Amino acid sequence: KSLPEENHLVNNDNGKMAASSDKVNDAITLMAQEPFHRGQNLNNDMQTIDQDAFSVNQRESEAHRVNLQHLCRICGSSSNNDPYKRSHPVHGPVDDEMQTLLRKKERKATSWPDLLNKVFKIDVRGDLDTIHPTNFCHNCWSVIQRKFSNVPCEVYFPRKGTMEWHPHSTSCDVCGTSSHGIKRKNQAPSSQEGKKLKITAECAKKIMYARRQKQVNSKYIMKKITNCKKIHLSTKMLTVDYPVDFVKSISCQICEHILADPVETTCKHLFCRLCILKCLKVLGSYCPSCRYPCFPTDLMNPVRSFLSILNTLAVRCPMKECDEEITLGKYSHHVSSHKEKKDKGT
């Protein structure tokens, strides 16, 4: 072959080699870039999954917070169970009804956290809206009222202890049972103990009922004899809610009104002079409380210190236009002044 032909063949071979090397280099660069693109796609997918999970968690926490608004902070019952939908704010001010009751007890409380801590022994100052309910039910409010009141009332507290609240989780009791409140676990009572308790309770009820019937009948008869409603003052007129035992000590044991012109028997019982004299005349010469022999000549005045305590008791004026607090010693003078004003007006 001639020399130009050989040069042409060599050039063709060199061109083919260069083209093939370019293709190999392109393939290598594509293979190197492919893991990078795959990593970017994986990162983007992970970010979208995280965003979706965050939005789901946010929605669940908001729903959890909404469910907490319908539950009681103390007992866990739902406000939907109350037909009147009554609830009270945990961190709010004490309502007027409770304030008047506390004033009678000579106590002060401006906010609910103080009262909740006294009655249920729980501190609600560090509560979080995402974990703890912000209201408590009217049933728990009644428990607080009973605590500071001497009026007997049947209030059922649905739990042995107060509720323990936890953050929202996958097995959340709040989100599962928010419509009816959180239920506690039932304990299977033993049949033998239940039977024994029933028998003893029934016997005790029968004995107490018979005793009460006798006491009620005798008191009813004595009240009929005295008939002093219009003369003597009721213990409800006292401005301060004193303990029951103290109220009994300053009230007549026949009419159960505040002692008027009190007298003491030889057996150390106190009565209004008018009440005991009427009972002794009708029922016989014995003490109405303990049946000890008693005669009108045995009646004595109580000690001066007791009379001074009695006269310093604050009572409310029964006149609607007045409603003033006065001591028992000045009560008769205060009422007579009202009568004089009426007489002058007429």
TrEMBL record:
<dbReference type="GO" id="GO:0061630">
    <property type="term" value="F:ubiquitin protein ligase activity"/>
</dbReference>
<keyword id="KW-0863">Zinc-finger</keyword>
<dbReference type="Pfam" id="PF10426">
    <property type="entry name" value="zf-RAG1"/>
</dbReference>
<dbReference type="GO" id="GO:0043565">
    <property type="term" value="F:sequence-specific DNA binding"/>
</dbReference>
<dbReference type="InterPro" id="IPR013083">
    <property type="entry name" value="Znf_RING/FYVE/PHD"/>
</dbReference>
<keyword id="KW-0539">Nucleus</keyword>
<protein>
    <recommendedName>
        <fullName>V(D)J recombination-activating protein 1</fullName>
        <ecNumber>2.3.2.27</ecNumber>
    </recommendedName>
</protein>
<dbReference type="Pfam" id="PF12560">
    <property type="entry name" value="RAG1_imp_bd"/>
</dbReference>
<keyword id="KW-0511">Multifunctional enzyme</keyword>
<keyword id="KW-0833">Ubl conjugation pathway</keyword>
<dbReference type="InterPro" id="IPR019485">
    <property type="entry name" value="RAG1_Znf"/>
</dbReference>
<feature type="domain" description="RAG1-type">
    <location>
        <begin position="313"/>
        <end position="342"/>
    </location>
</feature>
<dbReference type="Pfam" id="PF00097">
    <property type="entry name" value="zf-C3HC4"/>
</dbReference>
<keyword id="KW-0378">Hydrolase</keyword>
<feature type="domain" description="RING-type">
    <location>
        <begin position="252"/>
        <end position="291"/>
    </location>
</feature>
<dbReference type="GO" id="GO:0042803">
    <property type="term" value="F:protein homodimerization activity"/>
</dbReference>
<dbReference type="InterPro" id="IPR024627">
    <property type="entry name" value="RAG1"/>
</dbReference>
<keyword id="KW-0238">DNA-binding</keyword>
<keyword id="KW-0862">Zinc</keyword>
<keyword id="KW-0808">Transferase</keyword>
<dbReference type="GO" id="GO:1990238">
    <property type="term" value="F:double-stranded DNA endonuclease activity"/>
</dbReference>
<dbReference type="InterPro" id="IPR018957">
    <property type="entry name" value="Znf_C3HC4_RING-type"/>
</dbReference>
<keyword id="KW-0832">Ubl conjugation</keyword>
<dbReference type="InterPro" id="IPR058558">
    <property type="entry name" value="RING-HC_RAG1"/>
</dbReference>
<dbReference type="InterPro" id="IPR036236">
    <property type="entry name" value="Znf_C2H2_sf"/>
</dbReference>
<dbReference type="GO" id="GO:0002250">
    <property type="term" value="P:adaptive immune response"/>
</dbReference>
<dbReference type="InterPro" id="IPR017907">
    <property type="entry name" value="Znf_RING_CS"/>
</dbReference>
<dbReference type="GO" id="GO:0005654">
    <property type="term" value="C:nucleoplasm"/>
</dbReference>
<dbReference type="GO" id="GO:0033151">
    <property type="term" value="P:V(D)J recombination"/>
</dbReference>
<dbReference type="GO" id="GO:0006325">
    <property type="term" value="P:chromatin organization"/>
</dbReference>
<comment type="subunit">
    <text>Homodimer. Component of the RAG complex composed of core components RAG1 and RAG2, and associated component HMGB1 or HMGB2. Interacts with DCAF1, leading to recruitment of the CUL4A-RBX1-DDB1-DCAF1/VPRBP complex to ubiquitinate proteins and limit error-prone repair during V(D)J recombination.</text>
</comment>
<dbReference type="GO" id="GO:0097519">
    <property type="term" value="C:DNA recombinase complex"/>
</dbReference>
<keyword id="KW-0540">Nuclease</keyword>
<keyword id="KW-0233">DNA recombination</keyword>
<keyword id="KW-0255">Endonuclease</keyword>
<dbReference type="InterPro" id="IPR035714">
    <property type="entry name" value="RAG1_imp-bd"/>
</dbReference>
<keyword id="KW-0156">Chromatin regulator</keyword>
<keyword id="KW-0479">Metal-binding</keyword>
<keyword id="KW-1017">Isopeptide bond</keyword>
<dbReference type="InterPro" id="IPR001841">
    <property type="entry name" value="Znf_RING"/>
</dbReference>
<feature type="region of interest" description="Disordered">
    <location>
        <begin position="1"/>
        <end position="20"/>
    </location>
</feature>
<dbReference type="GO" id="GO:1905347">
    <property type="term" value="C:endodeoxyribonuclease complex"/>
</dbReference>
